[in-house]
Amino acid sequence: MKPLFVTAFAALTTLSVTGSASAQEVCMPTHEMRAALIDWYGERPVKGQDQGNTQLWVSDATGTWTILKTLSDGNSCVEAQGEDWMAGMANERIFAALAD
Questions:
Q1: Tens digit of each residue's pLDDT (9 = 90 or more) over 46-91
Q2: Is the pLDDT of residue 19 over 50?
Q3: What pLDDT does 99 receive?
Q4: What's the CA gap between 68 and 80, in Å, rounded?
Q5: Coil, strand or helix at 34
Q6: What is the DSSP letter of 18?
Q7: How far is CA 28 from CA 50, 51, 95, in A?
């Protein structure tokens, strides 16, 4: 599973150099997606989010970020991801900046 996820993330990184959303989604069972974000990228969900089924995961240590959408079927999909995380920015400003 790890090689598939790493390959998929590498493809997203290549397609999404500036951190904008990619046309290709990576989806997998939610528990596997969360474990991968924690284990491989050191990312954790940002606290205080009220975005429904969409959640921002970040790593202050690596500077990476991922927007994760949880589906009703038990899977989660990467909506966007990138580098150069802006630690300390208010959640509203973060989502506004990523939506541009």
A1: 887 766 899 999 998 889 999 999 999 999 999 999 988 776 655 5
A2: no
A3: 61
A4: 8
A5: helix
A6: T
A7: 23, 20, 23
Tell me which residue of 97, 91, 86 sits closest to 59, measured CA to CA: 86
Please give the residue that has the higher pLDDT: either 12 or 41: 41
Helices vs. strands in the chain: H and E counts, helices first: 3, 5
* Widest pairwise Cα distance in the chain: 34
Burial of residue 85 (CB within 10 Å: 0-12, 13-18, 19+) is: buried
pLDDT of 23-42, one tens digit each?
468 999 999 999 999 999 99
Residue 17 DSSP SS3: coil
E strands, the chain, where? 26-29, 44-45, 54-58, 65-70, 75-82
- CB neighbour list of residue 98: distance below 8 Å, 6 or more residues apart: 19, 56, 67, 80
Residue type, 82: G
